[in-house]
Design goal:
Layout lengths: L5 H17 E2 L2 H4 L16 E3 L4 H14 L3 E4 L18 E4 L6 E5 L4 E5 L4 H9 L3 E2 L12 H6 L7 H4 L2 H4 E7 L5 E4 L12 H5 L8 E8 L1 E2 L3 E9 L2 H14 L4 E8 H10 L13 E9 L5 H14 L5 E5 L2 H19 L9 E2 L5 H15 L4 E7 L4 E7 L9 H18 L15 H6 L3 H14 L20
Helix pairs in contact: 1-3, 9-11, 10-12, 13-14
The structure holds flavin-adenine dinucleotide.
Flavin-adenine dinucleotide (FAD) binds next to strand 3, helix 5 and strand 10.
């Protein structure tokens, strides 16, 4: 008599529930689901489930729970901390949200839209634009990341200084809990103070508390005019001083203020040869900034005034203004291509730290000194969102280092960087989350009270530790077979 293991029975039941399109077991077809954008690590899933409705997600979760099989919710796999990667032991079922991709409703009168969690961010922005609205979350991965992933990571991006992070852009959530119950928290209310804000617990929970299946998003009026400028500056201190002038002088219409070192422009031009040096001279630091407005506002006069004041004070050395949409897009292309340029250099340290805005110059100086003292041949690439105090202080390993030694070397540099960060009471994750890659450093800095509360929340939602086990917090219980 043939013996069916509990896992075989689960896969049979899932095939029955989801059909052939809804369950992938062929290793070649699963290749797309075993790595993230960085491509540094590979996972090995038991299989990939692709439910097409909230009810199918709930039933999939119930079946997994009955067999004690751990699950990995997966969005657009653009996360950068290994959260959506299945474990390498072949034991986790990936639950991809990619087929839950319906815009459920747009309500321009209420400035909200209700969407499935698997909707791609870019598609959500387009749907909002069709109603003369904007969903203001903008980030480099918007062509692939999903709303559920944005919620699970509390994504930030380029416009946080004006519109806030995902936390501020979500009014309601629908989620499947780790026992398969569906929680319908899809409120469209802009103000609602009834008890605990349960929906907020899912923001930044990295798929450890429930699988987000739907969300109500906040919209803003679509800007009628937008101006983008790239400026050359002499120092990081000048960048932060100019940011202060811009915040005060741009009537709160500033939507982006990005710090870019010269090396990043070079990486962008390497990755996209069509890009040419945007300014006549070479400068050590650049700012890519944007202002946007609806209504009768003279953005050109506003920016001219800012550039004049910045030049008088020796902060701005040169600049290029993108007045047309095509020119603006070309300037933004530098920001996007520089990420691809870094990726081409292979495995490197990616960080998303935060310090108080006023401390950015001091932090960059001290952290650079500490890192270069330890590894004189490494290359520091520090860029980021000045208005949020959020820097990507990235490090390329020395070119002559053996491939097999790179990871340990980068880990040691990360530890040094985080020690400097501690002196500034900074955050070791301002955007990407903890996942697996930041867990050790995160736990080392949690107070006993914080750890008890975090473990209590996880245990309340997921007593069997089946949803994204080992992300944020360590794996809790021995697995049932
Ligand atoms: C080029 C590039 C630029 C980026 N820029 C930024 C930036 O500016 N700001 C920023 O904050 N991030 C940025 N990121 C990181 C990344 O895009 C975001 O973290 C994004 O929000 C992840 O969404 P995703 O759908 O790809 O999620 P995934 O990578 O698939 O998953 C990320 C985490 O969320 C969980 N998850 C996914 N979907 C769900 C769901 N429906 N329910 C529950 N849990 C779920 C996963 O288990 C995992 O833990 C960037 C990444 C890249 C590659």
């Amino acid at each position: 008599m043939s013996h069916r293991s509990p896992r075989d029975s689960l896969l049979d039941a899932l095939t029955g529930l989801l059909g052939a399109r809804g369950l992938i077991r062929d290793p070649e077809a699963m290749a797309r689901y075993v790595t993230d954008w960085a491509g540094d690590r590979l996972g090995l899933p038991l299989a990939v489930a692709r439910p097409a409705s909230t009810a199918e997600v709930a039933e999939t979760v119930r079946l997994c729970r009955a067999q004690g099989v751990p699950m990995t919710p997966q969005g657009g796999h653009s996360g950068l901390v290994g959260g959506a990667l299945p474990a390498a032991d072949g034991g986790e079922l990936v639950i991809s949200l990619e087929r839950l991709n319906r815009i459920r409703d747009v309500d321009p009168g209420n400035f909200t839209m209700t969407v499935d969690a698997g909707c791609i961010l870019e598609a959500v922005k387009q749907a909002a634009a069709e109603h003369d609205c904007d969903f203001p979350l903008s980030l480099g991965a918007q062509g692939s990341c999903q709303i559920g992933g944005n919620i699970a990571t509390n994504a930030g991006g380029l416009n946080v200084l004006r519109h806030g992070m995902m936390r501020e852009l979500v009014l309601g959530i629908e989620a499947v809990l780790p026992d398969g119950r569906i929680w319908d928290g899809l409120t469209r209310l802009h103000k609602d103070n009834r008890g605990y804000a349960l929906d907020q617990l899912f923001l930044g929970s990295e798929g450890t508390l429930g699988i987000v299946t739907g969300a109500v998003l906040k919209l803003v009026p679509r800007p009628e005019q937008r101006r983008t400028a790239l400026l050359g500056l002499p120092s990081v201190a000048a960048v932060v001083a100019l940011y202060g002038l811009a915040r005060r002088g741009c009537s709160d219409l500033l939507t982006a203020f990005e710090l870019i070192p010269r090396r990043c422009l070079e990486l962008a031009m390497e990755a996209t040869p069509a890009l040419a040096d945007p300014l006549d001279d070479v400068h050590p630091w650049y700012v890519l900034m944007e202002v946007a407005a609806t209504g009768p506002v003279d953005l050109d006069a506003m920016l001219e005034g800012l550039f004049e004041r910045g030049t008088e004070r020796g902060l701005v050395l040169d600049g290029a203004l993108g007045t047309s949409e095509a020119q603006a897009q070309q300037l933004w292309q530098f920001r996007e291509s520089m990420l691809e340029g870094q990726r081409r250099h292979g495995e490197h340290l990616r960080t998303d730290i935060a310090v108080p805005i006023s401390a950015i110059p001091d932090f960059v100086e001290r952290a650079s000194r500490a890192v270069m003292a330890q590894s004189p041949a490494c290359e520091i690439i520090a860029f980021g969102h000045v208005g949020d105090g959020n820097l990507h202080f990235n490090i390329l390993p020395p070119r002559d280092l053996a491939e097999g030694d790179k990871r340990d070397h980068l880990h040691a540099l990360e530890a040094t960087l985080f020690r400097v960060l501690d002196d500034f009471d900074g955050s070791l994750s301002a955007e990407h989350g903890i996942g697996r890659t930041k867990q050790v450093a995160y736990l080392a800095r949690l107070s006993p009270v914080e750890r008890e509360l975090a473990e209590g929340i996880k245990a309340l939602f997921d007593p069997d530790d089946l949803l994204n086990p080992g992300r944020i917090l360590p794996v809790r219980s021995p697995r049932r077979e």
